């Protein structure tokens, strides 16, 4: 194939075709440095990252030999910037320093200086020097505008938006991200950069738990990518966030496939934590689908790559009927410092697990912290989590009316977010609250709605748990087990031996049963079990 064919394929975004054409042409006659650059970009976009860096190093050497300072500086920046995101700080610093020295020695006014300011801004973010990062991004945008480089302007403004978010100026930061993405999907930036821009914006949405915006821009990019079939827009890093968005919206088979792709792409690359995050997302999907062996294996892989398997692993133990093991795991996790969205999920899991072991006081404390965090960030997803946790705690406290109000708010938020699984969990709790208040007919409707959603999603473990509960009886499956054994005349010690739990745990279960059913004696509990056909 000819060089001309490679250039034509490159211009229309056919990266695999361009890579093949340039590689074939290079075997016949060594490519010119600008075509080597194109080949390097194509190699990166077909996920041959190591080869891409080697090709750009070759182009850099050719530009130096030809005395083309700007070309040499541009390729040096590209290499340094790529290595920066691969976690190779020393090599990155060397190449970026070389780019700056080349421009300084030649006293050259070049757009590459804007790219270097952008790289400096990213390093400032890593050092938590946010004011310096903001200034550097704005300088980079000004240089990009002066040279008519819309791609540099877009990335610099995106960086500025992300710094504003980190500084707590979320509305202003988000507005900049939206502006950048509107321009990007309108064709204002070079197609090879679209995937990187999308990943950065999706990461920002994840940081502030803005699921609605993440979904909107995911849909917009998918539509744009349909016209660029060879564009690799969803690289390993953003596949993880993308899988989470799909999971929340109930597209579990697609989400699982994206998580698997992310695992395959990231497992043998620099930045082991990214691979760990991919395995964690995969484990979560297996857990929700009731595939417990696969989930446990994936959680262990996440841990191998340096990512904590919590709170998912603790929730797995709870779903497997091991509440005490789940509680021990989640209590250990609570002491760890975590970013806000991750902390919120840990708190929500903590409430669910501690209520299952009847540690209501500790669950109440976790729900309170979650509510404070949700109010501070004002994110709909976190507010829904907080309402659901508050409702569950009110149920455990015996305040079904307060639980009803909180759970109805939670379900409304989940529906607005198009989060069917979470909406089903809220409906399940609502059914318990309604049954406690004596509204068995509406409780049955809520329970049926939850069952239909669980069945549609393939949430087999949740479906099994729901079906184990007796309609109109506000007890968990474990409480029903204890009640049945109480009704046979067994003591707490005998029940503990039968269920392989502690006698203290049995006592908590019995106390909770008495509270929920408004009973005061074991004889009354036995009568209730017979009256409601629970044996």
From TrEMBL:
InterPro entries in the record: Sig_transdc_resp-reg_C-effctor, TPR-like_helical_dom_sf, Tscrpt_reg_LuxR_C, WH-like_DNA-bd_sf
Source domain of life: Bacteria
Organism from which the protein derives: Gemmatirosa kalamazoonensis
Keyword terms: DNA-binding, Transcription, Transcription regulation
Pfam families attached to this UniProt entry: GerE
Name of the protein in question: Regulatory protein LuxR
Domain (HTH luxR-type): residue spans on this chain: 468-533
Biological process per Gene Ontology, one example term: regulation of DNA-templated transcription
GO terms assigned for molecular function: DNA binding
